[in-house]
């Protein structure tokens, strides 16, 4: 399903980053980073043009030859990015949306971890495990 | 066309560049340096002629019959139409449509927007009906372009022409001649696309293009154009989606074209504010420049592009901006990779200074994000890079004009502590408080406005101590080497501003991960305010200026006041150094010490040599002593001559001066004179010393008055054992009535004890030397150092008991002293100029010292001072005590050691009865028996029944009258068991008055009283003659002792009545 | 059940903070610790409470959320009134503020009321801060158990 997932903080610095193949991590980081422009643009447009774009899920940010990048921004301006392999055409938009929902849910849980300081990078192993589960579509 | 001036030169040029005759071209020549006044006009003309060419072409085409035109083909279309029936209805339409589109192009190129829109619109209609997708797309594109030109006449023209100042004023303005004015925009053109439609049509066009494999380049171009229009419309997302499409177009491009494509993309992304996207494309372009597929790798361009991508990756070239916490943080993993790529590019460019700089930057700014192994790896890389070109803290300027700010390594090594050190205590400058007096009357004090407010706002970074010009000053650093390898840091200096400061470079080798302290030294060369900004290092081949401002946990800078130059002085003493210092005292500025042992009463000299070891003359030296002693005692022990020292000033550089310190072991030679408080406050070690002294304690005891003449009672042989009791009893038995009255309340008589534990007292003092000279002296500063002096005071001679006895003459009395030799040496004691005696070690002896009585003249003041209500008894006591102390001179010598000393009786205490003997009596007695004057100590012998006529005369020696005196004669018998019998009515008859009242006795006048005595029975009688003042006397009772004081004729007269 | 627990733990926290202040002697009661505890709680809880919420249109929309869903989630009731001057000042009024309802309605404990509203001020401030609205929150109690929360948005 997803090949890469990232959580990006209010200040646009990475808080959590994972991908299926660790060797590709840097390459994905470039891609995810460059997708933030679209995220910001969508957020700006959202506030301008009113009601229909008030969903947290931003949908497809952009697609590359091999990957599709989806975005989701919480009310607290935490950005979730999921990268999907383009060859996986069977994946529906709703499934991506539900992946983000789950991601948001475990993120909110992680914030409740007394040892987690908001806006710090996430190093929790259990969180990592949960994200991997979501990415694999479980 | 050439300028008319240089005809000959131009003729030559023209010859060279003459165009062929068949060309209708005109060549224009301009000399490099010449003004080209008509250039713009010429260009305008050129553009105009272009228009006419196009216009003529358009007119030519538009006259053609649309039905007859041949099929226009794109180059790759040719094979598609092979063997097709060109005359079919469909193809006819296709031909017409394509030609209409072409006409639209010509109109557009000729600037006829409204016509072109009409052509494009009809072309689109026609081509759509025949499914000619490629040309339909082209028609849509043309329609969009024309509409956009109408809507946004200034599109892509926001970059205005930069006019050189050299262009003449009168040259035509570009806006007038080229740009269509906004007024020409017509929004009523039919079929013109509204803004929203433009991007839709573009999208359609792109979709149509994408159906053709070979139309990739057109599709790419259309995407760019669409993006540009979206930019103009401020539809960033729309622009982004067009740009995104470019990536998907499958094109076989050369590396150069690919690079160009990425650069165009990044350029457009920048325009829509997608800096990260732009950076992404820039980086891709950069990698293409040096990819293995690229036949002409270009590291310079790669470097430039990576540098351009930095803002998008939130990298600032100035390390100080990267370190700020509030800066939006980028993505460290990517930043590290980019910086590494930059280092490689710089290296491949052959610019090793840049490579070193960027590696330093990487290590400095990304330190926290690097793993330990990466830190080590990069440090080693830096070392090898810097071996090519050393890093220095100066900005590097690239050919492109970009300035690379310096990168300083403040993480290698890490500085954990930075503190300015005060000078050594003995070198610390101190303010001379009294100096102001020397400035004289023309003192100018500038008025400082608002000083009150400003003093409160003093920054914390200001040191509260001072440094001195030309003195070596220290700053202590605590450094840690975070690398897992040994690190050599050389050329460490302090960075300062303000006064000139000469920093001494230090080199340190830091082991891994071990905090190391390092002291950086330097010398201020001027006086004034010095600011310490940080320190410089040279490590891993990189020179860095580590400024505290950019380092966390430090103030931006520290400032300290440097005062003008002051001399320094070296001090030596002639005495050996002390072994230990007392911990009780504050001896931080002690530079040397001296110690000596002296027997009490002994004195010695200590020579202190002062050497000026600076380059400034010493103009002032002040000596003072500090100890916990009472001032008077301190002055006795330590003496020196300030005048002698001052006569040796100024002390020039390398000159020496000497100061003699006189030490005297001033102790209390009396067992009980110094009260416990005085001792404990005065002498160090008194806690044990005094206790032993106190144990001997008690006041003065009266020695038996029965001693008629001075007795040289050498009782020193043994104070312990059997003889003691014997002595005691004998003393008691010899107590006279007089002594029993006086000694009653004091102590058991004759307790001649030798202090058992008389211990050594240690006196410690600091001789403070305040000295100054040169400019620092002018500025009111001096230095202060001190010599620690330990004086061990050994017990020597001790007066354990004392008493006074009347002497043979009324002008003198005997002071009887019990003197103990506390030393283990034999002592020779001189107690009068002529008399001396030897005292064995630890033995004691009794000596009588004849002393002149205290003359009344010394007491006059007391008698005269009627109003004095203070305790005159104590004053009297003190006067008499001082009188004795001044007259009695006890000189001792320890024969075996050949040491001499002098003991004083200062502080001797006296009882009221003693006082009567010590001072001259205010009344002079003249007693005669049967007409013969009675001599002192004389006994009267007579027979029972004899009548003795007693005549008593008293005269007043005071300078004031005495009032209400009662003169009386009384007889009694002493039973020698402590009881006196006064009931002698049956034995003695007094004829005449036994008492006489004298109302007033004027000064120097005499009064007489006479009576007769008849002894009825034989025996031993005593005649007590006394003169009393009445109890109620208020006038001067205090002066003469207790109220109702009585003076006796001393001694009591013994009368032996025989049968 | 968990309401009660929340109230108990809140009152214990208030006691704890107030007690530890007495130890360090203060003239005026320092409730900043209490407010900070609230801030941290608000900052974290808002992540959970806005999980299913659509993005807020604007500041006022956010305030409305605070008055309704947010307040219901914490205090099981909605705010009774919301007023604004449209220049960054919002007054949220709760006529029966939970932490004040257990006390006498008279003037008896009016002096102590700040202790019981400080935490909530912090919660509001923390929540809004995480939503990107930086503000000052103060509370005003005139008649127990009503409480007005003044929110002053800081723009810079």
TrEMBL record, chain A:
Principal subcellular localisation of the protein: cytoplasm
Coiled-coil intervals, chain numbering: none
InterPro entries attached to this UniProt entry: Longin-like_dom_sf (IPR011012), Sedlin (IPR006722), TRAPPC2L (IPR044760)
Keyword Mitochondrion part of the UniProt annotation: no
Keyword annotations from UniProtKB, A to Z: ER-Golgi transport, Transport
Compartments, as annotated in UniProt: Cytoplasm, Perinuclear region
A single Gene Ontology CC term: perinuclear region of cytoplasm
Gene Ontology process terms (BP): endoplasmic reticulum to Golgi vesicle-mediated transport
Entry-linked PANTHER family: TRAFFICKING PROTEIN PARTICLE COMPLEX SUBUNIT 2
Family: Belongs to the TRAPP small subunits family. Sedlin subfamily.
Protein name: Trafficking protein particle complex subunit 2-like protein
Organism, as annotated: Pyrocoelia pectoralis
Biological classification of the source: Eukaryota, Metazoa, Ecdysozoa, Arthropoda, Hexapoda
Automatic annotation (TrEMBL), chain B:
Domain Trs120/TRAPPC9 fourth Ig-like: 924-1024
Predominant cellular place of this UniProt entry's protein: Golgi
Trs120/TRAPPC9 first Ig-like domain span: 429-535
Positions of the Trs120/TRAPPC9 third Ig-like domain: 808-918
GO CC, alphabetical: trans-Golgi network
Source superkingdom: Eukaryota
UniProt xrefs under InterPro entries: Ig_TRAPPC9_Trs120_1st (IPR058565), Ig_TRAPPC9_Trs120_3rd (IPR058567), Ig_TRAPPC9_Trs120_4th (IPR058568), TPR_TRAPPC9_Trs120 (IPR058564), Trs120_TRAPPC9 (IPR013935), Trs120_TRAPPC9_N (IPR058563)
Pfam annotation, one family: Ig_TRAPPC9-Trs120_4th
Domain Trs120/TRAPPC9 N-terminal per the UniProt entry, residue ranges: 67-159
Domain called Trs120/TRAPPC9 TPR region: residue spans: 252-386
Subcellular localization(s) per the UniProt record: Golgi apparatus
UniProt KW keywords: Golgi apparatus
Family: Belongs to the NIBP family.
Protein name: Protein brunelleschi
Automatic annotation (TrEMBL), chain C:
Keywords for the protein's UniProt record, in alphabetical order: Endoplasmic reticulum, Golgi apparatus, Neurogenesis
Pfam families: TRAPP
InterPro entries given in the database record: NO_sig/Golgi_transp_ligand-bd, TRAPP_component, TRAPPC6/Trs33
The UniProt record lists the keyword Cytoplasm: no
Secretion signal, residue range per the UniProt entry: none
Gene Ontology terms: biological process: endoplasmic reticulum to Golgi vesicle-mediated transport; nervous system development
An annotated GO cellular component: TRAPP complex
Record bears the keyword Chloroplast: no
Subcellular location: Endoplasmic reticulum; Golgi apparatus, cis-Golgi network
Record's function text: Component of a transport protein particle (TRAPP) complex that may function in specific stages of inter-organelle traffic. Specifically involved in the early development of neural circuitry, likely by controlling the frequency and amplitude of intracellular calcium transients implicated in the regulation of neuron differentiation and survival.
Family: Belongs to the TRAPP small subunits family. BET3 subfamily.
Protein name: Trafficking protein particle complex subunit 6B
Organism: Pyrocoelia pectoralis
